[in-house]
Hints:
The chain contains nine helices and 17 strands. By secondary structure, it is of the alpha/beta class. It has three domains: about 5-130 and about 170-195, HUPs (Rossmann fold, 3-Layer(aba) Sandwich); about 225-280, SH3 type barrels (Roll); about 285-369, Elongation Factor Tu (Ef-tu), domain 3.
Amino acid sequence: MSRKGKVLVAMSGGIDSTVTALMLHHEGYEVVGITMKTWDYASSGTSSKETGCCNIDSFNDARQAAVQHGFPHFILDIREEFGDFVIENFVEEYLAGRTPNPCVMCNTHIKWRALLKRANALNCDFIATGHYAEIRQHTNNRYVISKGLDATKDQSYVLWGLDQELLSRTIMPLGKYHKKDIRQMAMDMGYPELAKKSESYEICFVPDNDYRGFLKRNVDGLEEKVNGGWFIDKNGKKLGQHKGYPFYTIGQRKGLDIALGKPAYVTAIDPDTNTVVLGDEEDLEQNDMLVTKMNWIKYDGISDGMEVMAKIRYKDQGALANLYNHEHGIRVRFYENVKSIAPGQSAVFYEGNDVIGGGIIQRGDLIAL
């Protein structure tokens, strides 16, 4: 048994997870590699090749690295549990007029739980991933997620749903490095092809990046049910017909196929009436929202008025806000207006570089209630 312990490393076959596994191996951990198959592209109905974490070449790359360095590697098929939760949630959210974040749902409910279950079965002390974020134990004994050193790669936003049990068992060694350093490590470790390997940014089960096509293929009769709804303005005036409310997202400007003589933006979606509200860019601005399904990380709750930096999307720079306890969740009051608050997306709250907690945006106009 290694003096540092036994660690189960999630290996996608990409540069980040491979360097993570080899780094921990060289540091003296007893490493076990595991690659998770989440989606079967043969059933996706697209002509796209398998990409990202679920293609056979990536599986082989992960296994080859493990074999070369003398540690075991397993492939774990979690397609059934992944599909039952992540994909059903993805579809249901769009049908409810919201914009889902499937990577957050997968991390929170599927991948980490699947990893921990297998780690326990294999008597592993820890699990490890190639995310650009850091985990430490705070002075209050709670485990905290912090932003990764490389601001362009920081992934703390998508990890807000991990609970204390999961965080206490997780190692993320890449949080202390910039991406360029990881590429150099891959070169130094003898994997120049990994250093040059392109990264995948699309949703794993939507390989062609066309979520509208995915919905059409996976919801029977969807087009017939929603086609022909109305674009309306904020006063309810009909502006023209659209192709179905699930095919639009808050803040969308392109692809509306309607000429109003000026730029128009999706400002609201009503699935009950199959209407999509269009407005000017300033109509997207709000300073108030309700966040539900909270998971607290740094503290076990908040006091009213707590100041945070709130992020409402992955690439958002964040905006100063105050948090208030609300009967249905957390009320967020921004100091200045923010644009395109989209129900269904994640809101993540920071204190400096530390994640205080996060939740799902329920609505962006609580002040109007």
